[in-house]
Each structure stands twice: as structure tokens, then as C-alpha cells.
Amino acid sequence: MKTYLRKETRRHGSxxxxxxxxKSRISEAMDKRQIDLSTMVKxxxxxxxxxxxxxxxxxxxxxxxxxxxxxxxxxxxxxLQTILGADNLTDEGKKIRIAGLVNGIVISQQVSQNYENIExxxxxxxxxxxx
Length: 131
Hints:
Elements (H helix, E strand, L loop, with lengths): L1 H10 L4 H17 L1 E3 L9 E6 L5 E6 L4 E5 L2 H12 L5 H40 L1
Antiparallel strand pairs: 1-2, 2-3, 3-4
Helix pairs in contact: 1-2, 3-4
């Protein structure tokens, strides 16, 4: 995460003021232990990654129809670290891969919620028939 933030500073460091603004945003993100991913993931009303003091990464995302707040699995965290640390990817490539990772998590949650809703309706219909 720190490596990505440093690269962001270098990329936007064309003027002293913008470099200072970047440093301020990076410092704030590190203090809050949060990164706003909304600009990287198109179509998300809200998307942020929070790193807890215990080292757990929690994704909070809202695409308008599904809200997700959950800890990233070890595999997801490893994939995120691999994406951010990949020197062979451009910033745009990293954004695309991060968006894919986040969208996959949100879609998975949406499918799970849909399945639970269908199961619940089926149980309600079954109970209604028994009456």
C-alpha cells in the first residue's frame, strides 16, 4: 500500500503545490488507515479499503444496489498486494485490476444475497402451502 501511495506522489508531483497536496492526502490516508478506491472503481457510489490496527483489510463498497462491508480474505489481500506492487503494470492497468477485484467481491456478495432471498421466499411459500 505504501509503495502505491509513493508512486502516486511521484506521478502527480509536477508542481510543488500538487506534490504537497498529494503528501497531505497520503499522510491523511495513512493516519486514518483508509484508502478511497471510488475513483478507481467506476460505478461505485462508495468504495474504500480500511486497514485495521490488527492488519486486517476491510473493504466497504456500495454500487447503488448492493452494499458490502467485509474483511478481505488472505487470497484477496495477496492479489491486491501483487497488483499494487507490479512494476510491469501502468497505473491504468493497476486501476483496471483493482476494479476487477472489487467488482468480483461485490458481485459475489450480490449473488449470495440473491440466493438467500430466493431460499427465503421458497421457505415462505412452503410454509404457506402447509397452512
